[in-house]
């Protein structure tokens, strides 16, 4: 109790925003026995399997069966429909879907889900439009919804301090309903203020207060028209004017215009802008972050010297006003530099606590790791919704059947449909488990950062490397899974009312922003190679999260071989982890050798890195990300109580692991990992197929455990009662002008008239 009070007091002392301080003090004066403590995610590991002593273990065994009062709470666990097309699947299930849901949530998360979704369901502004809004209507509606959520104060700083792992959770609940307003909200009131909080030295607390009161709306701007992932190549400049104590911002040409900035197109008043800092003596001090006023908060007219506009319609996220901005000798006060990583004093001299410029640059971009952690959760959310729709539809949709029977079978009974969908169900669960852990890790690190705790200098880099691999793994998994779900629902899945097309389009930018995936994963391989260059024993030192500590045993792992003897062995998660340990070690060494050969052949360091990506560094990064996800899921499983729910989730993790091994099967054979198993691929394929029918038994109930309420899922194909055709009929007939002839009907009749006019 005393430690927690000291912790909260220290956080309060380090917060620059008085509103935040007041809320922290309120928590400090509360009865801490009532504070819900987050699940502990660390304890001992198994050195023989390359497990870290500090890696996630979900510590206390999760025992849903001992929480009968919570399980019987109909608010959090409403009864599933007892009749209809899905009833037979629910009756044959071996699991209690409520226990599965409770294994992925605690009471605090269930409470926040209910509170958030109930607010949305009961507020008239969140009623679903019965038509497809125009781009302008979408942005207007998203803006109004954003301010409603901000004013509702459903989740605030006091909640964050109690549950740092909820940092992105609340926003994901909003996105589950509709992503545009949620993205505007998270950028305008979340990322904007958190970046200031992280990088300010106490000069801009008033802006955080104004932002939290809804008086100003923020945006975050790094990308430029001709430079995205190459942050060092940004060309917007900020030159310090000693006489006037101001920075003068300039955009040299349209290619240097800041772009793709959410909220900038129409609505933001201020933005975080990264620009190349110059002092009056002409010296360049790298990319630095500034707070830049864009529009008058009372009129939304752009300030003189600011050319700001909208990028136009996109493939998805129509309610988000992505914009561009250019500056023409635009002046901002000296205090508007976010100076924690470097400052210019009034005499025009640049000073910084960082001697190493690359470390200072990394610290100034530290906020991007949080964005990537959040995107992993968003991808998980989209994939969850898609697989819920596809599996419920597949259990309701009947086609064909045995030749000696007139009764058609649900398409979920066919192995081909199971093969298509169950992998993505397995991936959805595995990624969800991983994001639970990663959110906790990042939340704890963020709180330590604002407290000024830098006792572990390696954790930031490990989070950066892991997020740079996890974001591509998660977003590509969501991309592929949503598309497969769309196709698995046939023509009906192509209807807009299915919402699968919207999920696909809304997920698509996840693969690009916060770092284009194929470029981003180079951050991970660069880190792994840099650590390897100092000796494999170094991995134990630089991995406080334990994601690569296993590599300290490189020689033992590299010499290991598969020992499968049956299909059951081939889908054992422990065997998968042994294989992935070998794969990461093998790829790291092969990539290192590839770089050496290229350099020996006269290639520069740049050329060698460039020519070692395909088949080497790229695959290394992805394998590292997949291995961590599998490892976290295995630890999660080992801390669940024994029972059918653990078995069912375990099958999904096994299927995910089997697919990862299968994806890299060529490398395993090429590197000799299967040299002791003559029929490894046959065993793996058979084990994979053996999992499908047993997963089918629980598939609908597993989906029930991760599905949001029907009004949030918002798809006639995926409603909890399985009455697909009734809901389709209702949606189609209620759409505007469904039964009316078009206003231009004469042009479809009088063809001669049309020809004459042409």
Record the SSE blueprint:
Layout: H1 2-14, H2 18-28, H3 68-71, H4 87-92, H5 97-104, H6 107-122, H7 135-152, H8 157-162, H9 169-177, H10 179-199, H11 205-212, E1 220-221, E2 237-241, E3 246-250, E4 258-262, E5 270-278, E6 284-293, E7 306-310, E8 322-327, E9 330-333, E10 343-344, E11 350-351, H12 357-364, H13 367-396, E12 398-399, E13 409-410, H14 415-450, H15 459-488, H16 500-507, H17 517-532, H18 554-558, H19 567-570, H20 573-600, H21 605-610, H22 613-638, H23 644-663, H24 665-670, H25 680-706, H26 710-713, H27 724-734, H28 745-749, H29 751-757
Helix pairs in contact: 1-2, 5-25, 6-9, 7-10, 9-10, 9-13, 10-11, 13-14, 13-15, 13-16, 13-25, 14-15, 14-22, 14-23, 14-25, 15-16, 15-17, 15-22, 17-22, 20-22, 20-23, 22-23, 23-25
Question: Would you summarize the structure shown here?
Answer:
It contains 29 helices and 13 strands.
What does this protein structure show overall?
A hairpin with a 4-residue loop joins strand 2 and strand 3. Strands 1, 2, 3, 5, 6 and 9 form a 6-stranded mixed β-sheet that branches. A 3-stranded antiparallel β-sheet has the order 4-8-7. The longest helix is centred in the middle third of the chain and has 36 residues, at 415-450. The protein folds into 2 domains: 2-196, no CATH class; 367-706, Up-down Bundle (Butyryl-CoA Dehydrogenase, subunit A, domain 3), CATH 1.20.140.10. Helix content is 52%, strand content 8%. The termini are far apart.
């Amino acid at each position: 109790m005393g430690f927690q009070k000291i912790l909260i007091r220290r956080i309060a002392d380090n917060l620059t925003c008085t509103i935040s301080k007041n809320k922290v003090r309120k928590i400090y004066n509360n009865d801490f026995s009532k504070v819900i403590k987050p699940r502990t995610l660390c304890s001992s590991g198994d050195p023989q399997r390359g497990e870290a002593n500090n890696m996630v273990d979900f510590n206390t065994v999760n025992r849903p069966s001992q929480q009968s009062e919570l399980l019987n709470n109909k608010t959090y666990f409403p009864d599933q429909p007892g009749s209809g097309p899905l009833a037979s699947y629910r009756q044959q299930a071996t699991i209690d879907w409520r226990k599965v849901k409770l294994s992925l949530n605690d009471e605090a998360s269930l409470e926040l889900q209910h509170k958030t979704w109930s607010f949305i369901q009961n507020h008239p502004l969140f009623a679903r439009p019965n038509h497809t809004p125009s781009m302008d209507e979408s942005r207007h509606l998203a803006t109004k919804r954003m301010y409603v959520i901000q004013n509702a104060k459903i989740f605030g700083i006091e909640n964050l301090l109690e549950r740092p792992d909820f940092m992105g959770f609340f926003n994901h609940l909003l996105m589950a309903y509709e992503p545009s307003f949620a993205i505007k909200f998270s950028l305008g009131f979340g990322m904007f203020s958190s970046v200031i909080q992280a990088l300010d030295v106490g000069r801009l607390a008033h802006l955080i207060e104004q932002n939290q009161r809804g008086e100003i709306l923020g945006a975050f701007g790094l990308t430029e028209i001709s430079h995205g992932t190459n942050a060092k190549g940004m060309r917007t400049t900020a030159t310090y004017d000693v006489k006037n104590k101001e920075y003068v911002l300039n955009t040299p040409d349209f290619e240097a215009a800041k772009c793709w900035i959410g909220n900038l197109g129409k609505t933001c008043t201020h933005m975080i802008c990264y620009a190349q800092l110059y002092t009056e003596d002409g010296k360049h001090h790298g990319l630095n972050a500034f707070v830049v006023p864009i529009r008058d908060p009372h009129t939304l007219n752009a300030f003189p010297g600011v050319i700001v506009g909208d990028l136009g319609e996109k493939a998805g996220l129509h309610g988000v006003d992505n914009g561009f901005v250019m500056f023409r000798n635009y002046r901002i006060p000296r205090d508007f530099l976010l100076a924690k990583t470097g400052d210019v004093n009034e005499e025009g001299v640049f000073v910084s606590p960082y001697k190493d410029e690359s470390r200072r640059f990394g610290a100034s971009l530290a906020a991007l790791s949080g964005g990537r952690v959040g995107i992993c959760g968003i991808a998980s959310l989209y994939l969850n919704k898609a697989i819920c729709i596809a599996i419920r539809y597949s259990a309701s949709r009947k086609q064909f059947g045995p030749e000696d029977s007139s009764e058609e079978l649900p398409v979920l009974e066919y192995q081909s449909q199971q093969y298509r969908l169950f992998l993505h169900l397995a991936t959805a669960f595995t990624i969800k488990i991983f994001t639970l852990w990663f959110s906790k890790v990042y939340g704890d690190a963020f709180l330590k950062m604002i407290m000024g705790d830098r006792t572990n200098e390696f954790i930031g880099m490990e989070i950066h490397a892991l997020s740079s691999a996890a974001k591509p793994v998660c977003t590509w998994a969501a991309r592929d899974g949503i598309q497969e779900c769309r196709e698995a629902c046939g023509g009906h899945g192509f209807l807009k009312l299915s919402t699968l097309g919207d999920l696909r389009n809304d997920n698509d930018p996840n693969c690009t922003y916060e770092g284009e995936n194929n470029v981003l994963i180079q951050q991970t391989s660069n880190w792994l190679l840099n650590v390897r260059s100092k000796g494999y024993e170094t991995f134990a030192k630089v991995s406080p999260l334990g994601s690569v500590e296993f590599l300290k045993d490189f020689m033992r792992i590299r010499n290991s071989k598969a020992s499968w003897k049956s299909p059951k062995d081939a889908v054992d998660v422990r065997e998968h982890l042994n294989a992935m340990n070998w794969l990461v070690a093998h790829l790291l060494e092969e990539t290192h050798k590839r770089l050496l050969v290229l350099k020996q052949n006269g290639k520069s360091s740049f050329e060698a890195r460039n020519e070692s990506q395909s088949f080497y560094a790229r695959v290394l990064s992805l394998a590292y990300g997949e291995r961590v996800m599998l490892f976290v899921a295995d630890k999660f499983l080992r801390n669940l109580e024994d029972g059918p729910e653990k078995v069912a989730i375990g099958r999904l993790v096994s299927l995910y692991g089997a697919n990862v091994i299968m994806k890299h099967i060529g490398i395993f054979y090429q590197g000799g990992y299967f040299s002791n198993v003559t029929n490894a691929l046959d065993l793996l394929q058979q084990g994979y197929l053996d999992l499908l029918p047993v997963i089918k038994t629980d598939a609908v109930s597993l989906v029930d455990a991760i599905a949001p309420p029907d009004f949030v899922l918002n798809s006639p194909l995926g409603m909890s009662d399985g009455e697909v055709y009734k809901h389709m009929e209702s949606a189609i007939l209620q759409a505007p002008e469904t039964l009316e002839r078009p206003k231009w009907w004469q042009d479809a009749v009088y063809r001669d008239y049309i020809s004459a006019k042409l």
